[in-house]
Amino acid sequence: MPDLREATRDNLRVVLEGIKSRLNMVNTDVMRPEDFDLASYDDLLYLYQMVQKKNTISINEMTAIVEELGSMRKKS
In this predicted model, what pLDDT tens digit does every residue of 27-45 receive, in sequence order? Predict the structure, then answer.
């Protein structure tokens, strides 16, 4: 397991993959690492740690997490 405390592109990829996996996301294209800035890394790491600790994630929680992820994406 990599040390996720450091904001790197590789760690960003690990964090996003972990979130997608726990949320059982079907459309994973909405969470491509290149769509996120490293400036959002601490917030993404927090979400990652939160979803990893939960045994189950409700639909409402999943919706809130996906909305939060959407707000962190780079504006094009």
Answer: 777 788 999 999 999 999 9
Go through 39-68 and write b for each residue having 16 or more CB atoms within 10 A of its CB, e for each that does not: ebbeebbebbeebeeeeeeeeeeeeebeee
- Beta partners for residue 36, in sequence order: 73
Residues 6 or more apart in contact with residue 60 via CB below 8 angstroms: none
Global pTM value: 0.88
Distance CA 45, CA 15 (A): 6
Dist. CA 33–CA 36, nearest whole Å: 6
Task: List helix spans (H) across 1-76.
Answer: 9-23, 41-53, 59-72
Query: Which residue type occupies 49?
Result: Q
